[in-house]
Amino acid sequence: MSHASHHLERLALTVLQPGFAGTEAPDWVRRRIGEGLGSVGLFGRNIHSADQVAALTAALRKEKEDILVAVDEEGGDVTRLEVGTGSSWPGNLALGVVDDPGLTRDVATGLGRDLARCGITFNWGPDADVNSNADNPVIGVRSFGADPELVARHTVAYVEGLQATGVAACVKHFPGHGDTAVDSHLGLPRVDASRELLDARDLLPFRAAIAAGAKAVMSAHIVLPAYDDTHPATLSRAILTGLLREELGFDGLIVTDGIEMGAIADTYGIADGTVRALAAGADAVCVGGGLCDEDTVLLLRDAIVAAVREGRLAEDRLADAARRVGELAAWTTSVAARGGPAGDHAVGLAAARRAIRVDGAFTPLSGPAHVLELTSQANIAVGDRTPWGVGAYLADALPGTTVARPGLRAFGLVDGQLAAAAGRPLVVVVRDLHRNISAADLLAGIVAARPDTVVVEMGLPYGDAQGLTRVSTHGAARVCGIAAAETLTGRTLG
Question: Strands across the sheet with 454-457, in order?
């Protein structure tokens, strides 16, 4: 291989952020790190325990001390570090409801310490989207709320708290995924808003985060005709270079959302999408939430090299992207607090308690109840591995409590659950009831027969409670479930 070819391959590997399978570092990952791979991404499949992750990241650093180790750890509903148990930290909506930036900063610091302890140096978070569309299928409780000013102040607090632990923050999904009705994991959303509206609403938190020193920004796979009628933001030079770099003055790392998500993969393909993203101004390409093998990394590496040789991607642009990866890696090495103490999880539970809101008259449960948990299809960002709900905590607190989680189309579900709850309090747990028609219909049938039903909403509590007793947790993290159970029983459980 010529020196020029070797140099280009090294640059191409530097700008990739791939995932891999397994709880140990595969040989191919170690080998590619030696050849220049600048980052790796960890997902739930890579995580068994904090000690295991610490051993994994230590093995990666034997190959390259300043390798960026990234994870998608928002706390709340989107957790990788606690994928098997649920998060010790409430998510953004809960923090936005409390609206205490100092608390948000403390939660981000605690979460950052958990990450730093495991050797993770780069978090694909926080979510800075303004959730202006209540029917948004992928953001929802991941957002601090629908008020741009509130989202901005909490995004700043989160960035400050996280980066104080030596973990780089990556605010997402630029220039704003909050006003979408399509999940970009599955399709290509379009936001038909004017520049004036986008500036006043969606861009406000990103401007604030940039001013606060956020180290990275993640692009959204959404089309915004006000800036670019053709290309999604991830592939748009007008948005990544013109808006983010030149107008907003951001000089940190721009990373793409997962390049294998449907919005890009089904429209451009991952290889062409990767090249287009780099040419548009992205510095790093995230891949591996789904595709997590060596062949994918080699496909993207070779596509980047070919694009440079063919003149579709300027070598200076690739070198500039690699430089920014190196600068962020150097920052994480200079401030990293690896091996330090875990975060104070009591802060997370205290925050979840403060986020609880109760509508309607309510008397704490004193004896066994029947709990019906109406499941809904989790979006891909949340995943289906992480447990959620209230029933398990109520069953521990009130022995004899029964918990049911039937399929929503189960025959005779209403009559069966009413019979199971006869003579006992009935608690129905839901998640984003306003977007879940099947669950809403079932709940209506249950409430018609049992108007004393207590509803626990663990998603976005949309609209008024319509005369029901409703306990809103503003997220489905483990600590939110515990806080709800405490509210229902009038006891301290955590």
Answer: 357-359, 469-472, 454-457, 426-430, 370-373, 402-404
What would the two tokens of residue 420 be? 């199971």
What percentage of the chain's residues is helix, strand, coil (to nearest 5)?
45, 10, 45
State the Rg of the chain over Cα.
Answer: 23
Find the helix packing angle between 315-335 and 270-280, rounded to 10°: 80
Note the pTM of the prediction, 2 decimals.
Answer: 0.95
Long-range contacts, stretch 235-242, CB < 8 angstroms, 24+ apart? 235/264, 235/268, 235/273, 235/276, 235/277, 235/280, 236/280, 237/279, 237/280, 237/281, 239/174, 239/175, 239/280, 240/277, 240/280, 240/281, 240/282, 241/280, 241/281
Whose CA is closest to 442, among 476, 417, 470?
417
Distance of alpha carbon 151 from the chain centroid: 15
| 3-state SS, residue 17 | strand
Question: Active site residue: 154, 173, 177, 185, which one?
Answer: 185
| 185 carries an active-site annotation | yes
pLDDT average per 10 residues of sequence, the chain (494 residues): 84 98 96 97 95 96 96 95 96 98 98 96 96 81 96 98 96 89 73 94 98 97 94 97 98 96 90 98 92 95 98 98 97 73 92 97 93 79 84 96 85 88 96 88 93 96 85 97 97 88
In whole angstroms, give the CA distance from residue 385 to residue 482: 19
Cα separation, 425 vs 432, whole angstroms: 23
The gap between the terminal CA atoms of the chain, to the nearest Å, is 60
Sheet holding 122-123, edge to edge: 39-42, 68-71, 122-123, 168-174, 216-219, 253-255
Tell me which of 77, 183, 228, 257 is the catalytic residue. Answer: 257
Question: For residue 11, how many other CB atoms are within 10 A of its CB?
Answer: 23
Q: 101: closest CA among 109, 299, 404, 309?
A: 109
HEC profile for 317-365?
Answer: HHHHHHHHHHHHHHHHHHHCCCCCCCCCHHHHHHHHHHCCEEECCCCCC
Strands 469-472 and 357-359: antiparallel
Question: CB burial class (10 A; 0-12, 13-18, 19+) of residue 64?
Answer: middle
CB–CB of 481/458 below 8 Å? yes
72 is catalytic: no
Within 164-246, residue ranges assigned H as helices are: 195-200, 203-211, 237
Sequence letter at residue 309: R
Question: Is the Cα dihedral 295, 301, 302, 304 positive or negative?
Answer: positive
Separation of alpha carbons 376 and 189, rounded Å: 22
Q: Which amino acid is at 454?
A: V
Cα–Cα distances (Å) from 88 to 334, 424, 479, 480, in that order, read 28, 31, 6, 9
